[in-house]
UniProtKB/TrEMBL annotation:
Pfam families: SnoaL_2
Domain of life: Bacteria
InterPro entries: NTF2-like_dom_sf, SnoaL-like
Name under which the protein is recorded: SnoaL-like domain-containing protein
Annotated SnoaL-like domain residues: 14-105
Organism the protein comes from: Arthrobacter liuii
């Protein structure tokens, strides 16, 4: 009998749509309480820590261009360009492991320097 549970790809895409649409509560509805994430900044464990991480980045997000989405019975991969005041061209990839209709594990890959303020941005200078 075919599964009536949404595919990992449809869950990842719904999650992606929620957070890139600035709906943190809806995005977190796709996240397992025990989520484990590997990110360039380090490990993020548990839904509360993940919510803080995602909510902080959402404040910077001004748009997104999704360029690829793939999935199978247990995983999904999304590739996209998040737009922030610092960049609109920072290739980003996320690998999701989904079980029981929730995202349980993610690996987030992006170039951290792409999100840093430009060297001409005077708002980040520290007064002497």
């Amino acid at each position: 009998m075919p599964s009536t549970e949404p595919s990992p790809l449809s869950i990842a895409l719904a999650y992606h749509s929620a957070w890139t649409g600035h709906d943190l509560d809806r995005a977190m509805g796709y996240i397992a309480e025990e989520i484990a994430t590997e990110a360039p900044s380090g490990a993020i464990n548990g839904a509360a820590s993940y919510r803080a991480f995602l909510g902080g980045f959402m404040q910077q997000l001004t748009g997104v261009e999704t360029i690829a989405a793939f999935g199978d019975d247990t995983t999904a991969v999304l590739v996209y360009y998040p737009h922030t005041p610092a960049t609109t061209h920072a290739p980003t990839a996320e690998h999701f492991i989904v079980a029981g209709g929730k995202i349980n594990r993610t690996v987030l890959i992006f170039d951290r320097p792409s999100f840093a303020p430009s060297s001409t941005d005077t708002t980040t200078e520290v007064p002497a």
